[in-house]
Amino acid sequence: MSKPKVIKDYEKLPPEVIEQIKLVYPRGFSQHLISFVNRDGQRKMGLPFETEDYYYLIRMTPVRASNIIEEDDDYDDDGVLKAKAREKYADKYDDLDFLDDFNSNDDNDLGETEELTDDLGDEIADEPVEDFDD
What we know:
- The radius of gyration is 15 Å and the shape is flat.
- Helices cover 25% and strands 23% of the residues.
- It has one domain.
- The chain contains 4 helices and 6 strands.
């Protein structure tokens, strides 16, 4: 059975998901954004993130991704997750298997930007998306 796929804005994510995202992307989000075309033919960008229960595509632009990091006290002036925050969240989520690979590698990289061309639109931000191909 595949995981439900959800498109959401960063600000609407549960706090525990945001904390997990910080562990997976300790050097910020902008270099990990992927592009997709919504049902209206508009190009959008998002941050892919997978938990044990969901596959998220978190809507954000490169500018918004940079602003999130700049405004977050868990990141230092260079846009890197502070050691204190990393330890706090790693201890909190040490039982999550999907974080193991990321916690052991600060320079994680999900690869090149990929193109997604499915029927995703802004109006379904908080709804599961059954036809979203990952």
